[in-house]
Design goal:
43% of the residues lie in helices and 13% in strands. The chain is an alpha/beta fold and 344 residues long. The protein has a domain of 239 residues: SGNH hydrolase (Rossmann fold, 3-Layer(aba) Sandwich), CATH 3.40.50.
């Protein structure tokens, strides 16, 4: 282990938040067709006691690994988590691909995706839960949430989506317990809010970066890319400590279909798609820091799939159709093939 795994320093800390989900088994059925299905299929999801997505309610995914099994986990956001069924999620597609390539081998691919997760949450989830599953390989598959959260929710690097909502709820609770009723009444007065909106009324819950600020400030954009790269490095250190072989993947996004080289500088394109263009610029910085990370650690596997897919592969800006996961799974299987061969 290269030093102690440390989650806190002067600029970043480990917040007691991974995601809101019950710590128990769940069975969930959608009441409308899944957008990830091109055939109108309805989604169904099952989880184990650690909220990891599993193929069926009675599927045994124990923390203790069976003898001879190769155990892989994928972490990331909803692009890892979602799919009409487990088998068509990206981890499910990778498992099917590996089973086809290595008949008779015991391959377990664990779905460690968290909806809306950024890389700092992946790090925390790895430490608090996933390291107990006797992992052989870790696939980090992310990028899009880290490159966009500052535009829509939170300007502070490494703060999860909607974390400020939690902070605000707690602040309001504490204030309500401490302040006299007359002060609370004034603060919540609709008349006073309209007359002096900056003095009375609810505080602004979200604190986002302005689109123009992000487009014009390259140093600010690099701040978010550096935070992402730092989390990758911390994940690397955790894997070293636990004897896990890590692979890092910058996930595909449709931003590169919208903004091919040169088009992003076009004034009309920037005006029509300002937020997406700002997101694209941050993603460009993530590509640079991923390349720097790879150069600093040539012993690791780093794969940039950011521009891998055409626009029609996505049903929105970040998520692909179920069948597209088979294509990505093939690339990932090639990516980890040498290590799979050594472990067999």
């Amino acid at each position: 282990m290269d030093g102690h795994v440390k989650l806190a320093n002067s600029s970043s800390t480990s917040y007691p938040y991974v995601e809101f989900r019950p710590p128990s088994n769940i069975t969930w059925h959608s009441d409308r067709p899944s957008p990830s299905s091109r055939t109108g299929g309805f989604a169904v999801e099952y989880t184990n006691r650690d909220s990891l997505r599993i193929p069926s309610p009675d599927y045994k995914l124990d923390r203790e690994k069976p003898v001879g099994q190769i155990r892989i986990v994928m972490i990331g956001g909803s692009s890892v988590r979602i799919g009409t069924r487990f088998e068509v999620t990206l981890p499910g597609a990778l498992k099917r691909t590996l089973q086809a390539r290595y008949p008779g081998a015991d391959m377990e691919v664990i779905n460690g995706g968290i909806i809306s997760a950024i890389s700092h949450q992946e790090l925390i989830f790895l430490l608090t839960t996933l390291v107990d599953y006797a992992l052989d390989i870790l696939l980090v598959y992310d990028g899009i949430n880290d490159s966009g959260q500052m535009l829509y929710y939170e300007r502070r690097p490494n703060f999860p989506y909607n974390y400020r909502v939690i902070e605000e709820a707690w602040t309001q609770y504490v204030t309500g317990r401490r302040e006299p009723l007359w002060r609370l009444a004034l603060h919540r007065s609709a008349i006073l809010q309209s007359l002096w909106p900056k003095k009375f009324g609810d505080t602004t819950i979200l604190d986002r970066v302005a689109t123009t600020e992000l487009i014009e400030d390259a140093t600010l954009r690099r701040t978010y890319a550096d935070a992402h790269a730092d989390n990758w490095d911390r994940i690397r250190r955790v894997c070293t400590a636990y004897g896990i072989r890590p692979f890092f993947v910058l996930q595909p996004t449709s931003l590169y279909a919208l903004f091919p080289k040169g088009l992003g500088k076009d004034d009309q394109s920037r005006h029509l798609h300002a937020n997406l263009y700002a997101n694209y610029l941050v993603y460009e910085d993530l590509r640079k820091t991923a390349q720097e990370f790879s150069q600093a650690h040539p012993e690791l596997g780093v794969l940039d799939l950011s521009s891998f897919l055409p626009a029609e592969a996505f049903f929105d800006g970040a998520h692909v159709y179920d069948d597209v996961n088979d294509l990505i799974a093939g690339k990932l299987a090639d990516f980890i093939a040498n290590d799979i061969e050594r472990m067999r």
